[in-house]
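Q: Sequence in, structure out?
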Amino acid sequence: MTKHVHILGISAYYHDSAACLLRDGEIVAAAHEERFSRKKHDPQFPAHAVAFCLQQGGIGPADLDHVAFYDKPLLKFERLLETYLDYAPRGLRSFLQALPLWLSEKLWIREKVAAECGFKGRVLFTEHHESHAASAFFPSPFDSAAILTIDGVGEWATTGYGFGRGNQVHLTGELHFPHSLGLLYSAFTYYLGFKVNSGEYKVMGLAPYGQPKFVQRILDELIDLRADGSFRLNMKYFDYCHGLTMTGAAFDTLFDGAPRTPESAITQRDKDLARSIQEVTEIAMLRMARHVHQQTGEKSLCLAGGVALNCVANGRILREGPFDDLWIQPAAGDAGGALGAALSVWHQYLDQPRVTAGDRMKGALLGPEFSVSEIRNALDEKKAVYDEEGSEHELTRRVARLLADGKVVGWFQNRMEFGPRALGARSILGDPRSPDMQSQMNLKIKFRESFRPFAPSVVEERVSEFFELDRPSPYMLLTATVRDSSLPAITHVDGSARVQTVRRADHPLYYDLIAAFGDLTGSPVLINTSFNVRGEPMVCSPQDAYACFMRTGIDYLAIGNFILDKRAQIAPAPNRQEEFQLD
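A: Exactly. Output:
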């Protein structure tokens, strides 16, 4: 009997902790810790995610050959110490706040893994941007490709580039802390009153409502951006090296006011600032992409790092950049580092060959799934009232009719997504033809800002009929112009949408639902937003799904073979925004 090689990948202690399990190089499971702990962006050791991965793989800790951690804590601690010494005596308070966690947990990863996982073998460490690069290239469909990784900061690197060929990744250039495009964007996230490492996508969504009035001021004062995409930040405007905030008094003076108070009214100036930093980010990413193309000569580009979740910039790279094709890791942020670390060990440390047979991410459906009996038991415990459909065909036809009639449906099916996007497994769905659907879903269901756009899911073979996009976008990481004016609920104020294309081979049930909706309406397109409310992680279990359904304005819940009508449930809770902890 052939012995399998099992590698567990782990990311932890910054934000979006996660775990991933490989068996002989194939992804068996991957999940965010937040989905189990119910703490959004949970940074703690991913004990629940690790337990799920081992359970999904049908193995115990003794069956693990290697555990891989996504960065090198000693190098990161070196940066913390050197940064403090560079800015001392400023920064003593933030340094003293950070030190206890380092001394108690972050410097003891090997011991923590042994304690939490029961693993007695060797723990391996990859550099942060190498993990990002591996997560971008190894699952991609390319035999060789350029690689670009952009985030806040790893150990020292904030941006890395190079190329991947065969079973090896080569990073040939880096930019180092404190000069960071990700931290520049986060500084504006903070200044605009949103939560850092959480609200950056709100800045991206707000940007089309503004004018790029501050672009030149940013380029003149904040960032020395060169033709090759390299840059330096003017650190007199930023406090993140030594303070407890991202920006300071000089930043306030430059932009004529203090940071926006969270939850206060959004002004036109706020919109203009969002548009301006988004434009600068796009310019920088385009210059980086052109430089990487020039340096590597590759026809395709792989992207990862938190900044690679900026789907507007990605769309511009695809349309205006020099590459023929683009592949973006769907878990591009730190969670994906767990996958990258594991893949790096398999291919580079163990020198195992790589077979490029399409997208190895399996539609990013890598999390838990629940049986019919588990779902029924969860619903019965809640004394829920439900109908059970006799077949998947009946289920998709009925839900399609509900959606065509203007109902909002919670959709809980199959394995949970890995990465920040709902891709048709843990989704809230609606009719994109309705002019009122966007505001209804934002305010009554998601309990979030009215300016936030919703993404469309479309059957892959018809994407070009509805959007100016000529290729798949399975992970909702590209924006494109909307061609069809009859889809107002998924059309942002600038005429764009963040498109997800759905292939039946990846998502048979979700594909059939969209196709059934298309049969009824002529438009095989649905609104697809994540199944959660603001301030909470995406739902994971049937219990999570039922709780979210009952506490919001969702009309129906389609969970496994079961359909629940809100009106039939016992005393549903009122739809009050104040019930939720808001960002």
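The domain at 372-579 is CATH 3.90.870.20 (DHBP synthase).
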